[in-house]
Amino acid sequence: MENGTVVRKYKLWWAWKDDKHEQWLQSMASQGLHLRDTNAIGMHSFVRGAPADVAYRWDMGAQRRDPHYRQLLQDAGWEYVTSIGVWHCWRKTRRAGVATEIYTDNTGRIRRYRKVLIVMCLGVLAQLPPILISSGHWPELLVGPAHLTGIPAAMRWLNVALLLLLLYGVARIGKRIRDLKQV
Amino acid sequence: MGDIHYSKYLPLSEATFYVMLALNEPLHGYAIMQKVETMSGGSVTLGPGTLYGVFGTLEKQALIVKVAEEERRKVYALTELGRKVLAEQVRRLEIMVGNARALQRTA
Fold it and tell me: Distance (Å) from the C-alpha of residue B7 to the closest C-alpha of chain A?
């Protein structure tokens, strides 16, 4: 295949497994597939080029729009790739003796995961009103409201599924933070 | 200024200690990263995310202050309080090292 060709790949990843996703992007780069952009539902587009040893890191927070922070990352050899909401992807060529971590201390890593936790907790709160409003009285919270059918019922179950996924995410990120605190 | 409550600031983490040490002259972020790596013989590297977090904390505690800006690069310097806190940290570290050496000699 020619260089410059865009290759699309689908891969879903979770915020609590960001390091696995970073390794995957690195292994794609070693095959000559360099990330161009991606989205929240896991579609990735890569540009084909020469194989390279490149580290990818997901940074979190609104500070990407802070020009001083961007400048510092660029000075340190990082290239901005793309964003998914408040997640920002940066990459840097790996060489012997060159640091390829954005966060080099646990305080920084914990602070980053705390930001992820806050976003997830906001997500949990956002799911609650539609579930509570559609539930009538409390037993329906668990079994689902009898009066809802068709699309409204499906929407409600989607809210419940999202709520459970986010709660699971909160637990997983919480565990990562606790693990980092023990080091 | 009244008495300084050093326990509010100490002990400094390794990253924070080296950032403050590097700021015995005004520097911007990337220059600090390079200086710390050279000073520590490569044993301490500061990632930009970590360094930015340290800046935020130290600025809030008034231990460092922005003194200039050069092309989107903030230049920081230690404040008077910052110098005192760093000196106190060094004094405490010297005591620790002294104690360890004394014990090693008797062992």
Answer: 19
Q: Which of A72, A105, A112 sits opposite B48 (nearest CB)?
A: A72
Distances (CA, A) of B78 to B9, B18, B54, B91: 14, 12, 13, 18
**Residue A71 and residue B14: Cβ atoms within 8 Å?**
no
Q: Tell me if A143 sits within 8 A of A157, measured CB to CB.
A: no
pLDDT tens for B46-88 read 999 999 999 999 999 999 999 999 999 999 999 999 999 999 9
Tell me what ipTM this predicted complex has: 0.89
CA distances from A183 to A103, A172, B46 (A): 15, 17, 18
Q: How far is CA B11 from the centre of its chain?
A: 11
Interface contact flag, A68 B74, Cβ < 8 Å: yes
The DSSP 8-state label assigned to residue A126 in this structure reads: H
